[in-house]
Each structure stands twice: as C-alpha cells, then as structure tokens.
Amino acid sequence: MNHASETGGLVTHSLSLFFRFLTIVLGITFVFDIPTLYLGMAIWREQIGLLMLGFVTADIFIVINHKRENRRHLKLKHSHVDLGLATVSLILFGYATLSYEDLISYGYMENTAGIIVSVLAVLIISETTRRTSGWPLLILMLVFFIYSFTADHFPGLLEGREVSLYETLNYTVLDPSGLLGTPLAVVTTTVLAFVIFGAALFTLGGGKLFLDLAIALMKNIRGGTGKSSILASSLFGSISGSAVGNVVTTGIVTIPLMKRSGYSAKESGAIEAVASTGGQLMPPIMGSAAFIMADIISVPYQNIVKAALVPGILFYFTLFLQVHFRATRKEIKYYEEADIPSIKETLRQYWPFIIPIILLLYLLFSSNLLAQKTAIIASGACILAAIFTPVKPNIKKILEIIDTTGAGMMSILPAVAIAGLIIGILSITGLGFNFGMGVVEQSGGNLAILLILTALAALILGMGLPTTAVYILMASLVAPALVQAGIDEIPAHLFVLYFGVLSMITPPICFASIAAASIAKSDFIETGIESMKLGISGFFVPFVFVTQPELLSLNITDISYWVNVTGVLIAFLFLAGVIEGQLFNRLGWGNRAVLSFLIIALLFTQSSLMWNLSIIITSTAMILWLFKQKQ
C-alpha cells in the first residue's frame, strides 16, 4: 500500500472515530440530562435526535462508499465527494438543531427554510440508508411518499387523505410524530446506552466468558456443540440485540465445531441463526425494539421483560429439544477434548465480568433508575472489572469500545430514521388508522384470521428490513387493530415483534440465515429453510400467548397458571418430537399424528381447569407409553 493510501486510511479512521466519540458523548450527556441540570439549558429531545443524525450520517459518508464498501475494512482512501457530503450533513443537521424552534414555529405550509431542511434531510437519510441497509427499506419509503399525494385515489382500507409533497416533507421531517418521534428518541438514548454496554462487555473479554462456559458446560452431552451454540447465542443475543451481529460473533467459533461433530453445514448454520435471532426475544435485555415498544405503549420496560420471559423460554426450550433429538437420531459426536476450554481457568481469568451483569440486572429491576442510565453505569463497571482480567482497559481498548458502538449506531439509526419518515406519512394521511380498521374488517371479526393476516404482513414486510424498522411499522399499522379486536396491548405488540424478528430466518431474504450460511459455507436458501424448521416454535409461541395471555402474567401463586404452563411445555415437547421425528425413539407417522392432535388440544382448547388437567394426564400417559416402547 502506498503512502497516499495509508494517509487516506488514517484520515478515514480518525474522522470516523471522532464522529463516533461525539455520538457517545452526546448520548451520555442527554441520558444524564447534563445541559439542564448543570448548565441551565433547556434542550428538546428532537434537537438531540437531529444532532446525532448529523454525527452518524457524516460517519457513514466517511466510512461507507457509494458501492457500499467499508473503507476502513478494505483500507481504501477517503473520497473528497464523500467528505463534502459529510460536511453538508453536519451543517444541515447542526443548523436544524440550532434553529429547531424557529423551523417548527412556522407550521408546515409556508415554511421555505423548513422545506429546504426537509428535502436535504430526506436525501441524506436515504443515501446513508442505502449504503448501510441496501435498497429494500429505501424503496418502501419511496412507495409511501408516492402514496401520500395519491392517497385519496386508493380504495377501501388503503384510502387516506391526500397531502401535498410540500406538506408531507415538512411534517415527516420536523414533526415529533415523524422522523423525530419516539423511535428516534429511544435509539439516541436507551438503545445507544445498551450498545455501549454490549461493546464494553464483549470488547474487554466478557464475551469469551459466555462462550467458553457454554462450551465447557455442554462437553459431555450428546450434540453438545449445537447446545453450546444455543446457550452462548442466547446470552450474547439478549445483550447485543442484533441477530446478524450475534451470528458473526459467536458463529465463527460454534459453526465449525458443530460441523466437525457431525451436523451438516446447513444444520450448523441454521442452529446458530435461530439461536442468535431468539436473543432479541429473550429477557433480560432483548433488542432495541423492546425499548421502543415500552415507549410506544407507555409501560415500564420491566413489564415488557416480565411478559416476554415465558415466551422466550418456550422458544429456546423447543430449539434445545429439537437439537437434542436430532443429535440422538444422527448420533452426533461429543466435543473433542482439544476444543473444550477449562471452566476453572475461564472463571479465574474473567469472573469479574459477572459483576457488571449482576449490577445491570439489579439496577434495571430493583431501582428507580431509567434503563439507559443503568446501562451506562454498567458499562463503567465493565471497564473497572476489566482491570482484574487479562484484557486491561487501556486506551486502545477504550477506542475499540467507541468504534464498536459507532458501528452499531451506523446500522440502527438510518433504518429507524426511515421508519420514522414512514410513520409520519401514516399519521398525516390517516393510513395508519384506516389500515388497522380495514384489517379488522377483512378478518370478519375472526381472531384467528386477523392473527394470521398480521403474521403474514410482518413476515413479508420484514424481508430485507432490520427488525427494529419492521416492529416500528407494524406497531403503527397493525398492532392497533389487534388491540381493537380485544387483545391486550403487550401481547399485541409482542405478537408483531415476534414475526418481525422471525423474518430474519424466513427465506428468501433472511439476514441471520444468510450470515450463518456464509460462515458454514452452505446454500443460504437451504439454511433458511432449515432455520424455519428449527425455529418452528417461534411461529407457534405468539399465537399461544395471544390466546392465553395469562401465561405472560407470571402469576406463580395461582395453581391454574402452573397447570397452563405445564400443558404448554408438554405441547412444545411434542412439537419438537413431531418436527424431528424423534422423542425417546424414532416416531412413526401414526405417533406423529396422535402427538399433533394432543398439541392442538394442549395449546388451543384451554377452558376449565379440569379439562386442562385431563388433557395433561392423557399427554403424560402418551409420554409414558412412548418411553416404554424404548425399553
């Protein structure tokens, strides 16, 4: 590499790191409300969102070129054109931040400064989204913009109020109901704080603690390589909140181990993809969409976690069983001795990282601190804990944390910004309300049809879109229809979140499966189909908790609650057996048919306590009979 390229690479790296540092400082400043408490300055959350958009979009222009290549990874020279675009982005969003009160005081019709800011903002956000997420989300936004000034020509549930392009641009960019709404505010505070925590924990060695323990704990268990992947990825995913990031982080270790033990390439990739995807559904931290959900429906985040616990357990319980049954059927080998890390040595070196995790959970669920504050405090605890580990928190590691955090925000913020623009269009045209009403009408009042339509909409919309963006759109379009149909808010929003997340493993566009397939060197469509098979419980769980919302209550003092939980666990045991064709031994089609009937009875015919008990007793008798056949 010549001197000019090296210099260009250094400029790119330095500028990017500087913008990422500013992003973190801005986020922490706003999380702890420093301008108001210590400087006497009243700053709107919309202004923070605008300024952070400036930093992140400038970073994207510096790092990602027009071919969507990462200059830093490929050590490419910086572009003067992109430097100019980064400068324009900083000036635009800086001006909008300083002049925000003036811009919105004019309204949305006769606001020349507002329209200039809005047009440039949409163009910048669109281009940075294309560079980071590709075309699908951008095309979707374009469709909605075209819809906004033709809305009155659409029939039925798609009919809306016609709005001029002038008004649409001003409203969607500057109004708190659009770009600058709740999703952006949550991402610039809560999500950023947890991205910092995840970056600190994994960069300093906490990730090695999780992975080594997961491998060591499964060393003498049939199919242990697959099971350690599930354990490690569930722990990673519940903190990172990124299915693809999780696959890349843990899959680089777990997938080769699974292949060596006897799982096929597509099976290895699928196990990792499903386990990583489930992390966004598994408490205690889940993904960024869960924090946005808490703000949208105005409930404490702890309530979301409480409701998501049993569904998350059911998801991983079934996946674990499927991997076990498959390992038994295929006689998968145990771990090779050389692949097993020492639990004693791992704990000796990295045990201090247990402290920030416990601190985070304690503050999150036993204090009155906001979630974003607890994450920042826990991030500081990670740095202190690392002092007592082999990975010391030196300047280089701190810069890595800043770098990793910035990379995470680059992937999240543009997608959320586009989703905010679309939400603004849904609001100003009235489509959000009309569509929800129309979906209810199309279902004919039948809850099952309504749920199926909603699930299909989330899966289709999720193709090619980040999970957070899918959830935001579904929360605006369809979740209100579920609530109107009589479903409680938390189950309704969890339902659309589940199917938005499952789009990550649903072909043809299944980002988690694609990432896993690239590591496993398998066909991504075959890996995606295998992922759907292994993740089958995820397609059942949402229907179960919507029809049995009491499962989300954690009412552990009620005997009927435990009866319901027992019935559901047996049903998912049978589901794993039917899908894999294995329980205590190989299952013939006759046994599969009987178990399928019992699954329906256990999951969807809940009525009186005595009926539920009778089905459980019948199912238990079936389990004992099948076990006896093994003898």
Compute the average pLDDT: 89
- Which ranges are low-confidence, i.e. pLDDT below 50, for 5 or more consecutive residues? none
Report the principal-axis shape: globular
Distance between the termini: 68 Å
The structure class reads mainly alpha
**Tally of strands:** 0
Helix content range? over 70%
Report on the architecture of this protein:
75% of the residues lie in helices and 0% in strands. 53% of the residues are buried. Among the domains are: 3-183, no CATH class; 555-631. It starts with a helix and ends with a helix. With 631 residues, it is mainly alpha-helical. α13 runs antiparallel to α14 and α29 (559-580) runs antiparallel to α30 (589-604).
Q: In short, what is this structure?
A:
The chain is built from 31 helices and no strands.
Write the layout of secondary structure elements.
Elements: H1 3-31, H2 34-39, H3 45-63, H4 71-74, H5 80-98, H6 100-105, H7 112-133, H8 136-148, H9 165-174, H10 182-203, H11 206-217, H12 224-240, H13 243-261, H14 265-278, H15 288-296, H16 301-330, H17 343-350, H18 354-366, H19 371-386, H20 395-429, H21 431-442, H22 447-461, H23 467-477, H24 479-484, H25 489-502, H26 511-520, H27 524-534, H28 536-547, H29 559-580, H30 589-604, H31 609-630
